[in-house]
Structures are given as C-alpha cells and as structure tokens.
Amino acid sequence: MEKGANILLSLMQLNIGGAETHVVELAKELKRKGFNVIVTSNGGVYVKELEEYGIKHYSVPLQNKNPFNMAKSKRLLKKIIRDENIDIVHSHARIPSFILGRLHKKMKFPFVTTAHWVFNTAYGLKYITDWGEKTVAVSEDIKTYLMDNYHIPEGDINVTINGIDTDKFSPDTECDNIKNEFKIADGDNVITYVSRMDESRSLAAKQLIEIIPDIDKEIDNLKVIVVGNGDDFNTVKEMTEKVNKQLGREVVMLAGARTDINKLIAPCRLFVGVSRAALEAMAAAKPVIIAGNEGYIGLFDDSKLAVGIDTNFCCRGCEMSSGDKIKNDILKFFGLTENEQNNLGEYGRELIKREYSVSRMTDDSIKVYDWALQKNKEILISGYYGFKNSGDDALLKAIIQDLKRFKESPNIVVLSANPKETMRDYSVKAISRINPAGILKHMKNAEMLISGGGTLIQDRTSTKSLCYYLSIISLAQRNNLKVMLYSNGIGPLEKDKNIRRTRKILEKADLITLRDECSYNTLRELGINNPKAAVTADPALDLDIADRNRGRQILSNEGIDADRKIIGISVRRWQNLDDKFESELAKACDYAYEKYGYYTVFLPMQSSRDMTISQNVRRRMKNGSAIIKKRYSVEDMISVMSCFDLCVGMRLHTLIYAAINAVPLIGLVYDPKISSFMEYTHQKYYVDVEELTSQTLKKQIDECIKNYDSVKRDLEENYRELKNKARLNGKYAIELYEKGSVEL
After folding, report:
1. What is the pLDDT of residue 150?
2. How far apart are CA 518 and CA 513, in angstroms?
3. CB 316 within 8 A of CB 295
C-alpha cells in the first residue's frame, strides 16, 4: 500500500474504552508511517489528542441506532469519502459498519472492518451487522465467533493485537500531578481500575468497590482510583460514597472519563481490569488482576498467558468474576515479597514489548488494507462436495488446507450441493453447484478453477456426472481461467463419445495432477498427451494425524468399548453386489472375532449409500458388532480409525484414513481406484468384491495379522513419502494461480 493513501477510520464515539483507544493508537501510528488519516465519530475525550497529533476528525452522529442519526450519518459519510478522496475505509463498530456497508455497495470503495467484541445476534440484530471485504479480529475467539455466527470465510479474517505504545505506558511515566490531584503520598498502596462505566462493562468495578472495606482491614494506606464514565456511573458513584462513608475517609476515588490513563496507572502498585486497559498497565510494568463482565483470569503471570491470548485478555469463556476472587488475589499480591511483585510487573512489560507493539498492530491493518485493495481473484473448486460423504469432505478439507499453506488468505469459492453447510464447516465461500448463473458470475471474478479431487473423470457412475464436471471445466476455459485437475483419479471411461469429449477438454488443461500411476497410465491410454501432467498423491494423505483420545471418546459415545481389539469395516452399496456378498463378508467378520478376538465396527462414510448394506451384513453375523451411527467431521473419522486394529474397506478414503494412522488394511476392490491405491502404497492385501468369498477374505485376514508388524512399518514409511507428494498439489496450484504456469 502506497504511503500517502487516504484512510478513513470510523467508530461510534471517542470516549474511554478499549476499541476507542485502539483506534486512536492505530490512527497515530498510521500517520507516523506516512498515511493520511481521517477519523469520524460522535466525538469524545480523545478528539483533542487526535487533533493535536494532526489527525482530522469529523463529528458524525454514529453513537446509536436512531433512524434520524443514521440517515444523517449516511449523508455525512458519503460526502466525507468523496471530499477527502478516501482510498480505504476501516470501520470499528456495528453502527458505522452497517452504514458504511450500504455505502460500499454503491460507491465501491475498499472496505475493512474490525471486530473488537462479540455482538448480540438476537432479535434480528445479526442482520444489521455488516462485515467488510476483509475483517480484522482482535483475538482468536472473536475470529471463531465471526466464522460461527456470520459464516465469514477464514481467509477473509486476520487476527491482530491491541497494540500498546510502550513509550507512553512506561514505568518512567511522570505522575506528580496525579499524586497531587488524588492526594497520594509516598507509601500509599494504590490500586487502579480503568473501564467504561456502562452496565455491560462495570461489573468488576462494582465488585472491587464492594470488597474495599474487607481489603482495607488487611492493607495499610489503601487507595483505589476508578477511571471511566458511562450509563452505570451513578450506581458506581453511589457505591463509592457508601463505602467511603463506612470507612470514614476517601479510600475510593472516581476519576471519571480521562485521556491521561498512562499517568493514572503510574502511581498504582496493582491494576484491576481487562482487555486493552490491562495491557496498558502491563506495559507500565504494573502487576495486573484480569477481571471483567465476561469472566475472570486473575493475577496475571506466565501460567495465565495462553488463556489471556485466546480471549484477548477479556476472559470470555472463563469462570465468572466475583468479589471474593478479586479480594483473594489482591491479598495474595500484597502478601508477596517486593521482589516477587516487581517480577510480575517486569514479566508483563516484556510481554507487551515483545508481542503487543502498536507498530505490529498497525502493520496487521496495513496488510488487510493491501488484501482489500488487491481484491485477489477467486479460486473456484469443483467436485463432489456437499453430499455428506466423509471421503469427499476429506478431499475438500485437504485442498483448502493445501492452498492456505502456500498462500495467505486465498479467495476460495466452492461449488457445493449444500452451500450453507460447506460455508459453515470449511469457513469458505460456497455457491450452488447447479446454479449456472451464479457459477458464471463467479467465473468473471475468478483466476482459476480447481477440479478435484476424487475420481470425477469417469463414466461408470454415469455419463451425466462426467458431463457435469467436463462442462464446468469447459466453461472455465471459455472464460480464460487457469484450470487444474487436482490429484484426480482417471477412469474408467467406457463410451467412445465420452472419451472424445474428455480428450478434447483435458488436452487444454493448464495442469493435471494425478493421485496414482494407474490414473496417469489411463490418461495416456485415452490419448491425452497434455505435457503438464504429473503423479502426486491423494490430498487427504496430507491431513493431520488423529487425536486418539478423541476417537476413544466417540467410540464410547457410540456404546463401543475402545479397549477391545477392533476390525473396522467400510462397505458401500454397489451395482453388482447381492446377498451372497453380504453373507460372505459376515462370515469373515465372525471368523476375525472367533479366531483373533476382533470385534467388528462398521464405519459408514456416506450414510445414504453405506448404512443399509452395513446393517445387512451385521444382521447376517453370528457374533456381536456395532455401527457408527452419527455423522462426524473428517478429523473425528480419522481419530476413530486410529482406535482400530485392522481395517477392511471398499471406500477409498477409509483406506486412506487407515494409512494415515498406520492401521493394517485390506482393500475390497469395486473400482480400479481401490487396487490402484493399494499398489501405490505397496499394500498387497486386497480382493475384488465380485470374487469375494469368506475363504478368500479369511486368508487375507490371516496373512495381514501374521505380518502385522511389518505391514505397520511399511505403512508408516510409505505415508511419509506420500504425504510429501500430496503436498505438491497445493504448491503447484498456487504457482499456477500466481504465475500462470508450472514447472514440473
């Protein structure tokens, strides 16, 4: 982003608060870095500081949802954006975001929003919230909230920090005027609390004031400074007056709304508060008790760092705050030695200097501005997605993971049978796979089409399916998109017309990666001589290793004893299978139990095709068995597989899940892709389903168990190699996207 660009920062008002201070520091640092910054708000105590720094402020009534104010704000903002020739708009609160979002749709300016807090989404409020083309979240939990509640794609969210000016908030800050104002003497034990005094923020302030009489009995020369103003200030004031009257002197002092927070923090020995105010106190080397309306973390040290970072020091999801908790930690702190107290302060300051600088926060925003200005063209992904098939879910998850590994914030759009579910589960944009107008519209904004993974190029399922995928590829080519077949399986193709159609379209593909040698050979046998074709591996082989404890918990929830030896069975409905197949497989499962003690658990990968045949096999068994009834995520299915001792599978991705976990496996071949995978992974135990008898499968089980340890070792070695090959898919895809071609 070029220096001198005009940046508009917009928020509701500029009174005391974490978001307000965040914007003030961001505005000042952007100006230091050479940008022209304009701020709009309803005004407040920080306006003077901005103007003294040479930052223009426009007063706009953005402080509430009054229709007249919102209409006036829209007119004013529109004029400001035009008059100031604004290059990028960055909104920091719900009301300005809603208004600016409407203006963005008409004026087409680059639009960024920051989420400082989690909003109430009840009573339709969700629908008056607008998020920009890119969004900044000030913590990981807010990022998760945005994805879960607003389905914002993960690639459109950047997590930043609440940056702190460590020169302004410093242990060297001079504060004689504050000492004089509040009559603080040397030797006084001062506690400072800073927050907005709105009812939604003032809980910890009231809890602190309430316990002061008890604290005063234990701590000499106690003084408490409470800073902030808001709609609950009168309640806080009444409590303060009552406590001071009870103690017979002014122990609690209300400072009201102030901008000299650094000086109000300087004389304290201990700080109480949350979020940005807590970080500012840490920067000043003050020990901190983190407590607020959202919860309680307590006296901060390195043991509390992880939860602090996860919640942006706001305590969301933590145990609730209480007066007793605050009291116990205050007394604990004053019971420490002076050296121990100083160590807490020094730890906090070093943390802020290392991780929470204003410069880093500003650079994070500039990066988001660059994203919004570049408007990265989309990557469309076409495949068998949205059909509740765990194998294809695994492929989509792996492809998205691969792309993100090689490009930050890829602009992904998935063609799905269930766009809402795909957006929810994968945090990407999704559109209906059978909406030609929508697909064409996105192709106008796209740079690249990825077709895959899986066996999309085949006509054994149906010519209709093949024609769908080829038509998507052809449409992309006509719209000048780069086209990549992403680790596809190829074939079988049996009809001459389908072969000719496939050859014509795939010859023009910019890149074809194939999941095994068999698919490569089939490609060449079809007469497709595209030089940009290479063998990699199935993308799902690059998924993360399982959480075995999670797998055990799922089995327990399904009523299955995870401590017993388990043989996992994955079967699917298929055109040539009959009762004989079910009976022969049932006999083999009984054999595994009776000879080796393996309890059978059926693992449906796609309930609509797998559940009935799994139940039929179970009914034909003499011994007990179980079936995984619920639908689980890809990670959960891989975790379940990690608890199995042996796997017998028709479904390709069941076998892949087994390979990831080095679970010895036996393939049931209904399609060449199964035998191809077994050969590619150097596994020799597989049998054609049309030739399956209980005797042949029993023999396979015997051999697999006899060579169990060597099979596991081979799987572990092969998996490492295949994982590296699978990772090439993402590397090649982003190289094609960014450079227009790939060197294989």
Report:
1. 85
2. 12
3. yes
Q: Are strands 566-570 and 646-649 parallel, antiparallel or unpaired?
A: parallel
Q: Where are the beta strands (DSSP E) in 234-323?
A: 252-256, 270-273, 288-292, 295-299
| Architecture, CATH, for domain 176-356 | 3-Layer(aba) Sandwich (3.40)
> What is the CATH architecture assignment of 373-542?
3-Layer(aba) Sandwich (3.40)
Per-residue burial over 330-354, b if 16 or more Cβ lie within 10 Å, else e, is beebbeeeeeebeebbebbbebbee
Residue with tokens 């909230």: 145
Type of residue at 674: I
Q: Is the pLDDT of residue 120 over 80?
A: no
Q: Which of 5, 4, 1, 39 is nearest to 22 (CA)?
A: 39
For residue 429, the cross-strand partners are 413
Record the tokens describing residue 599, joined without a space: 């309890």
Q: What is the mean pLDDT of the chain?
A: 94
Three-state SS at 9? strand
Q: How many residues are there in the chain?
A: 744
> Residue 663 and residue 685: Cα distance in Å, rounded?
13
Nearest to 193 by CA among 290, 117, 116, 260: 290
What interhelical angle do 708-739 and 694-706 show, nearest 10?
90
Domain 6-159 sits in CATH at 3.40.50.2000
Between CA 168 and CA 349 the distance in angstroms is 12
Per DSSP, which regions of 205-309 are E strands? 222-227, 252-256, 270-273, 288-292, 295-299
**How many Å apart are CA 299 and CA 347, to the nearest integer?**
12
* pLDDT for residue 154 is more than 90: no
187 DSSP 8-state letter: T
**Across 149-161, average pLDDT:** 85
> Using the 8-state DSSP alphabet, how is residue 314 labeled?
S
Backbone angles phi, psi at 41, to 5 degrees: -165, 180
pLDDT-derived band of residue 2, with 50, 70 and 90 as boundaries?
A: confident
pLDDT in tens, 545-582: 789 999 999 999 999 999 999 999 999 999 888 899 99
Q: What are 406-452's pLDDT values in tens digits? A: 987 788 999 999 999 998 888 889 999 999 999 999 999 899 999 98
Contacts 24+ apart (CB under 8 A), 101-107: 101/130, 101/131, 101/132, 102/74, 102/130, 103/74, 103/77, 103/78, 104/132, 107/78, 107/81
Query: Residue ranges per domain, the chain?
Result: 6-159, 176-356, 373-542, 548-723
User: Residue 144 has what pLDDT?
Assistant: 87
pLDDT digits (tens, 9 = 90+) for 594-634: 999 999 999 999 999 999 999 999 999 999 999 999 999 99
| Separation in Å, CA 626 to CA 79, 156, 562 | 67, 42, 12
C-alpha 273: how far from chain center:
28
CATH level 3 topology of 548-723: Rossmann fold (3.40.50)
Measured in whole angstroms, the distance separating CA 79 from the mean position of its chain's CA atoms is: 37
Maximal C-alpha separation, the chain: 99
Element of type H or E holding 492: none
CA 414/CA 616 separation, integer angstroms: 35
Dump pLDDT digits (tens) for 268-293.
999 999 999 999 999 999 999 999 99
Q: Which pLDDT does position 657 carry in this prediction?
A: 96
Q: Say if residues 410 and 428 touch (Cβ distance below 8 Å).
A: no
Which strands make up the sheet holding 157-159, listed edge to edge? Answer: 56-59, 36-41, 6-10, 88-91, 111-115, 134-137, 157-159
Q: Do domains 6-159 and 548-723 have the same CATH topology?
A: yes
Taking a C-beta distance cutoff of 8 angstroms, is the pair 614, 569 a contact? yes
Residue with tokens 């340890």: 709
Q: What does the radius of gyration of the chain's CA atoms come to, in whole angstroms? A: 31
